[in-house]
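Q: How would the C-alpha cells look for this protein?
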Amino acid sequence: MKLEWNEEEFKLLSSIQRTDRSVRKYVEKVDPSGAESVNGEQSRVDMVTNQPNEVVGDSATPIQSRSRSTTAISRRKGGGRLIALDAARGLAVIGMYLQHFGSNLTISSIVAGNTTLLFVLCGGISYSIMAQRMMERGSEPIAFRARMIARAVFVDIIGYLLIMLNTSYGIILPAYAALFVLALLLVRRSTRTIATTAVVLLFLAPPLMLFGSSMLKDSYLLSDIAGGPMSALALAPVFVAGMAIGRIDLTRIRTGVSLTVGGIVMLVTGKLLGNLVVPGWSARWEQWLISVIDYSAAPPDEYAIWPLNTTPALWNMLFTTAPHTASTFQTWIGLGMAFIALGASCLIAHKLSAILIPFAAVGRVALTMYALQFVIVWILSLLNIDYSMENVPFHDLVVVLMGLLIGWLFSRMPSGPLENLMRRFDGLFSSAKPVTTPVK
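A: Here is the predicted structure in C-alpha cell form.
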C-alpha cells in the first residue's frame, strides 16, 4: 500500500521531529492535559502545542480536526513552554513552603509576598493560553466562560475550607477565584488593551482596594473582590500582566531575555525607590493624613447602619514596600522578581530543561501543594508541634527537598487530587466535552 501525505500532515510531522528531545521526553512522561490522549492525532498535536496543566485550567476541549490555524500554532510554539511555566509555578509554591516552614530570615524576606505574585502571574499566563487554545479549536465562548466560572466556584470552596482551619496565614484562593470571573472581561481584548489595563491597575488598584477594605470589610464576597491586600483587586495588576504575557511565545530566547532583563530593571528601580524615595514620601503623606483625619476618635459603632459602621481606610499603606501590602511599590518589586524567575525558567528550558523537571512536577499539582501546606500547619498545631523546626540541620534545604519530593509523588498520579476534582467539577457545568471523551 502506498502512503500519501497531504501538506498539513507533512508539516505537522516535521514540527514534531524538531521538538526538543529533553522537553519531548518530559511531555511524553507527564501528560500535560492531566488525562490520557484520546488518540494518536491529539497526542501529536498536544505534544507540539505543549498544552499546559495549570491551576486555572487546561485545554480540555478535544481537537476535532487539524485546521490550518492549529497547524500554524503547532509550528510556532516550541517545547519549552510547558516546563518553564510549570517550573515557575512550582518555584512559587516551594517559596511559600520556605516562607511558612523555613527558619532563615534572609530567605523568608525574599520569598514573603513575592512567591504569591509569581503564583498569580503564572495563573494569568495559563488563563490567557487556555482562552486562546479553546478559541483556536473552535469552542464557543460560552464554553470557556462556563469552565472558568465553575473553576472559580471550586477554588472558592477550597479557599474557604482552608480559611476554616484558622491558621495564621492568609489564603489567596477566594481572591484568585474572583480573578477567574473578572478576567472574562479581558479575554477577547487585544494584547495592547490587556497590557495597558495592567499598568493602569498597578496605580489604581492600591487606593481602590484600601477603600474597599474600609467599606467592604464585613462583606465576605465583596471583600474577596476588593477588600484589602489579599483581595482580587490587589492581585489584579499581576494577573492581568500574566494574561498579556500569555499572548507571546514564551519558547523564544528573546522572550526569556526580555522578561529577565525587564525584571531586573523593575527590581532595581523598585528597590532604589523603596530605600531612597518612598520613606520620605511616606513620612510626609502620614503627616498630611493626620492633619485631615482624626484617628483618635472613638471607633464607629459596629451595629450602626452602613457605611456608618466602617473604619477609616489605612491610606498610609500606599507608600510601603512590606510584603502583602499590595502597594504600587511592593507590587512593582514583586512583579520584577516574578519576571526574573519566569524569564530564567524560559531560558533554562532551552538547553537545561532537566533542571526544571523537579520544580515542574510541583507546578503540575500546584493547587494540591498550595492547600497541603495549610493542612500541615493545622495538623502540627493541633499536635502542639513547632513546625518551624529551627534546630534541624540544613532546615531550609530539608524544606525544599521535602516539597519537591511530595510534589513528585503527587505528579506520578494522572493529575493532582484537587486538580482532578476541579476538572471533574467544571466538567459538570461546561458544555465542552472533556479530554477523555473519544473523538468520533
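Confidence is low (pLDDT under 50) at residues 1-81, 432-440.

The chain has 18 helices and no strands.

Upvote if useful.
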